[in-house]
Design a protein that fits this description.
It contains eight helices and four strands, in the order βαβαββαααααα. By secondary structure, the protein is an alpha+beta fold. It has two domains: 76 residues, Glutaredoxin (3-Layer(aba) Sandwich), CATH 3.40.30.10; 112 residues, Glutathione S-transferase Yfyf (Class Pi), Chain A, domain 2 (Up-down Bundle), CATH 1.20.1050. The protein is globular, with a radius of gyration of 17 Å.
């Protein structure tokens, strides 16, 4: 049995949900983290020592870090899938963009989300919000440049790199954010919305 631990409104949990839906893999999801708690128990910490979500569990095997989970699922269940190409250079490009989503976007985008969606107005740190919006905008500019030249983040086909960035882009466009003009980024977001798994699991109300 494949089990995904993590609340469905977490972008990092959306990544493996989206992938497993794309691949039609059976899985069970268990709500933990955020208002559901249960991530500080010894049992959960054995699966994910950081106490964050997601964690993947498969017959006693466990894994954490959302991008590592994406790679593992492709390697284990869909080794020939173009989602994670095996040709070294093609794979290198996908890996590069997946890593860049974590190193450039995740942190500032999370500050923007927490401030605008999960913090009451009187408690918001607007200076930190402004700084995070600018940093996230710079990260999205990388994808704007890339999608000017290719339909997808790592090139001509939909890959794990689109999943790693794509879970965040719906929020970027629906929240009241000062954004640079990014028509290619918006067109890529519209392409993602045509995928049923994305529309259903990653593009709902932002909570
Ligand atoms: N680098 C980690 C980050 C995981 C992370 O920050 N998860 C957030 C949700 S997106 C979390 O666990 N927040 C605390 C909680 O939900 O209890 C990954 O990609 O899996």
């Amino acid at each position: 049995m494949r089990r995904l631990w993590g609340r469905a409104n977490s972008a990092n949990v959306m990544k493996p949900i989206w992938l497993m839906e794309e691949l039609n893999l059976p899985y069970e999801r268990i709500d933990v983290g955020g208002k559901f708690g249960r991530t500080d128990t010894p049992e959960y910490r054995r699966m994910n020592p950081t106490g964050l979500v997601p964690a993947l569990e498969e017959d006693g095997f466990t894994l954490w870090e959302s991008n590592a989970i994406l790679r593992y699922i492709c390697n284990a269940c869909a080794p020939d899938s173009p989602l994670y190409p095996s040709e070294p250079r093609a794979r290198g490009i996908v890996d590069c963009w997946m890593d860049a989503s974590q190193t450039t976007l995740s942190r500032p985008q999370s500050v923007v989300l927490w401030t605008l969606v999960r913090t009451p107005p009187e408690q918001r740190d607007y200076a930190a919000l402004q700084k995070a919006m600018q940093e996230a905008d710079r990260a999205w500019a990388l994808v704007e440049q890339q999608t000017k030249q290719h339909p997808y983040v790592a090139g001509d086909t939909f890959t794990l790199a689109d999943i790693a960035w794509g879970v965040h882009v719906h929020r970027w466009f629906v929240l009241p954010i000062e954004r640079s003009d990014a028509p290619s980024l918006y067109a890529w977001y519209q392409r993602l919305l045509q995928r049923p798994a994305y529309a259903t699991h990653c593009a709902g109300p932002v909570t």
